[in-house]
Amino acid sequence: MAVNKCVKNLLFLFNLLFWVCGCVILGVGIYLKVTKGGNKITDQYLPSFDLMIAIGVIIMVIGFLGCCGAYKESRCMLLVFFIFLLLIFVLLLTAGIVAAVGEGKVKDWLKEKLEKFTPISSQEPDVIADMEKLQRELMCCGLMKGPSDWTKVPDSCKCNATAPAEVCNGGVYKDPCYDKLISYMKDNMVVALGIAFAVAAILVFGMAFSMMLFCQIGRKNAADTA
């Protein structure tokens, strides 16, 4: 009994694209770590770039296993590939559900993490430098309460020439950076959830193709030995 070439080729193509996605994630993770990593304030609420790099490597390995399993018609590799996809599928769904229903807990967790950086003026010089950089990028001042978080309001709190009037109050950014971070997280939450569930749907097709090929190879081997 011959293996269905269409299923085999589709699975190989799927895993090739999966491997390319892993390469892209790995490359972006390394780039962000080199150019934007090391901020002690944002590291408290953004996933580590090291985690992004690790995810890229894992996806590359899984894609490689799937490609080899399909090309060599290896049941062992296909089974390992299927198990990996199933684990990722479960983790994505769990993370998506937790993120969708636990927004309040995420805000409380973020607030608890960031409060330890106040009062800002008493922090280490590198933390203060990171805070000032964050204020310039997000057009905010202070961390939790606004300008009052500072003993002396720094120049990074002062509105620049391109700042919209609604974010300024007396020439100083009026919103605390905590509010900006929460807004940033909300704006990206819908996109992140959409991507997670889209990837989960793609994983279902990958699992289906791999199991179909796994069973066909098993029947072929049984027929050859009969």
Summarize the structure in short:
The chain has 226 residues and is mainly α.
Description:
This protein is 70% helix and 2% strand. The chain has 226 residues and is mainly α. The protein folds into two domains: 5-107 and 194-225, no CATH class; 115-179, Cd81 Antigen, Extracellular Domain, Chain: A (Orthogonal Bundle), CATH 1.10.1450. The chain has a two-stranded antiparallel sheet. A hairpin with a 2-residue loop joins β1 (168-169) and β2 (172-173). α1 (5-36) runs antiparallel to α6 (177-225) and α2 (49-72) packs antiparallel against α3. The longest helix is centred in the last third of the chain and has 49 residues, at 177-225. It is elongated, with a radius of gyration of 24 Å. It starts with a helix and ends with a helix. 21% of the residues are buried. The model has no long low-confidence stretch (mean pLDDT 78).
Blueprint of the fold:
Blueprint: H1 5-36, H2 49-72, H3 75-101, H4 103-115, H5 125-138, E1 168-169, E2 172-173, H6 177-225
Antiparallel strand pairs: 1-2
Helix pairs in contact: 1-2, 1-6, 2-3, 3-6
The count of strands amounts to 2
Helical fraction: over 70%
Across the major sheet, the strand order is: 1-2
The proportion of strand residues reads under 5%
Major sheet characteristics = 2 strands, antiparallel
Secondary-structure-based class equals: mainly alpha
Number of helices: 6
The global form is elongated
Q: Low-confidence parts, pLDDT < 50 over ≥5 residues?
A: none
Supply Rg.
Answer: 24 Å
Q: Cα distance, first to last residue?
A: 11 Å
Instruction: Give the integer mean of the pLDDT values.
Output: 78
Order of helices and strands: HHHHHEEH
